[in-house]
Amino acid sequence: GQSLEQPSEVTAVEGAIVQINCTYQTSGFYGLSWYQQHDGGAPTFLSYNGLDGLEETGRFSSFLSRSDSYGYLLLQELQMKDSASYFCAVRGAGTALIFGKGTTLSVSS
Amino acid sequence: DAGVIQSPRHEVTEMGQEVTLRCKPISGHNSLFWYRQTMMRGLELLIYFNNNVPIDDSGMPEDRFSAKMPNASFSTLKIQPSEPRDSAVYFCASSPTGHYGYTFGSGTRLTVV
Concatenated DSSP letters for B83-101? Predict the structure, then answer.
């Protein structure tokens, strides 16, 4: 089966940089994804890492190390609107995405 | 595209009643997923379909839950009979087959009293 671990909460101030870590266990590995969910909203896709290394999309970057079964989401130049829950997710063989429990990010001014 | 469309947005029902949640995936997306979200258990995969065929229903909690996809543009998740512990937000999502980015609907908030 699959399991993922990520911190439950992270706090930061506007303009700062925050890193949300994710470790995973899965039988078969087809990449690590990140999703954002605002309160009362739906999860929205942020990024995907299929190979080791860093992927950058604007203020957000995501990193993967398959040998360590580890990845992170890096958010730079934090804004109040970045306050949300962030989920890492993996897809194993023959199944759909399995999500971590989520990390609640609170950005203060 | 209107995105993934779910109905109803909110449903309040009494214990023992049948509940049917509906989903219209994005046109051209061959994979459809049903997830349930609660504070305690997070986002749980219930079932997913590929080309209208159920591929993995191991997340369906009990026989009270059933899902169908009669065609490429419509899916239902049915709970019969409903129980208070079924209260949650139910999300439908779709994607092209094998794609890593899912598009989620707005969800159905189900409350069973």
Answer: -GGG-EEEEEEEESTT-S-
CB contact under 8 A, B91 and A44: no
Please report the number of interchain residue pairs, chain A to chain B, with beta-carbon separation below 8 angstroms.
50
| Token pair for A95 | 């199944």
Do β-strands B42-50 and B53-56 pair in parallel, antiparallel, or remain unpaired?
antiparallel
> Cβ of B104 and A43 within 8 Å?
yes
CA–CA separation, A51 and A53 (whole Å): 6
As given in the structure block, the two tokens for residue A88 are 């890492």
Instruction: Quote the CA–CA distance of B70 and B65 in Å, as a whole number.
Output: 16
Ordered per-residue pLDDT tens for chain A, 109 residues: 779 999 999 999 999 999 999 999 988 888 999 999 999 999 999 999 999 999 999 999 999 999 999 999 999 999 999 999 999 999 877 779 999 999 999 999 9
The string of pLDDT tens digits covering residues B24-42 is 999 999 999 999 999 999 9
Residues 6+ apart with CB under 8 A from B104: A42, A43, A44, B4, B35, B91, B92, B93
- Do residues B109 and B11 lie in contact, with contact meaning Cβ atoms separated by under 8 Å? yes
**Residue B45: both structure tokens together:** 């995969």
Token pair recorded at residue A82: 């970045």
Enumerate the residues of chain A whose CB falls inside 8 A of the CB of residue B91.
42-43
CA angle, residues B6, A3, A84, in degrees to nearest 5: 50
Compute the C-alpha angle B101/B103/B108, nearest 5°.
Answer: 145
